[in-house]
Amino acid sequence: MPNSLVLAFERGYNALPGVIAQDITSWGEMKQVYRQLKKPEVKEKFSAVILDTIDVAADFCKRYVCAQNDIESLGELGYGQGWTKFKDEFNEVFRGLTQLGYAVFFIGHNKEERLGEGDDAKIRIRPALSNSTQVVVAGLADIYGYAHQKYANEKSVLTVRCSDGSISCGSRFKYLPDEIVPMSYDNLIEKLSEAIDKEAAEHDNEFVTDDKMEAVKVTNYDFDALVNEFNELVGQMMNKNSSYYAPRITEIVEKYLGKNGKVAEANRKQAEFIFLINQDIKETLLKDE
Q1: pLDDT tens by residue, 87-128
Q2: With contact defined as beta carbons under 8 Å apart, do 148 and 141 qualify?
Q3: What distance in Å separates the CA atoms of residue 249 and residue 235, rounded to the nearest whole number?
Q4: Rounded to two decimals, what is the model's pTM?
Q5: Alpha-carbon distances, residue 158 vs 59, 144, 171, 181, 227 (angstroms)
Q6: For residue 4, which of 48, 143, 251, 259 is within the disulfide window of CB 3.0 to 4.6 Å?
């Protein structure tokens, strides 16, 4: 994909020439990158964002939601509530990227799933995600395919429809072929354009570069320093205009620590949230200058 940025939740790009990649080691870092991708100068450079892999990205998002709510698993929030928070958090970033005009491409691992019992049981190939996570990710996708080797003399194939149900896949485009052979970005775009033209007619017509970003290290957040910074920032705001900034501070804090959340009551596992709170406060101050 031209002008693409790889968000490397796994280190799998070392053998690929000319890849611009940004390592991501937590959901907080993903939110920081999302913040950067909103900037006009960044939008001029990139038109596509590639996640490698969605498996790890989803896991980071779940951990983030759990830490935000001081729980060990999403189920602890009550029936469906944890998954709703996960879905909202996940969609906020990736739907946000599409609304900014980026093409978003998810890469994930696959696994075989046994349907039924006994010798007659069928095998289906599906993403290596939990059912709930798969529903969230698939809901974002216009094309949902399985990349694999199928024909001995062909390159990789992208299967986007499978009539016998042995492959979990799908497409919103009615006339996109069941398989893109061989699989390539240019071939996919060509077939997609043809499919769009056919559907329009039915309704009366009503890059690669040598640059590479340096790999980032896992961020270690200094909880005490971040709390001190928060207190200093709040002091600045309150000194400027307490009645104006007080509700804005509360809104930012509750965005990351939940309703009635307080930085003074946060624990060290939530240092990442204090960092994000401080970033939002700095942005608010900058906008008001």
Answers
A1: 888 888 988 888 888 999 999 999 988 887 777 788 889 988
A2: no
A3: 11
A4: 0.68
A5: 25, 9, 12, 7, 49
A6: 48
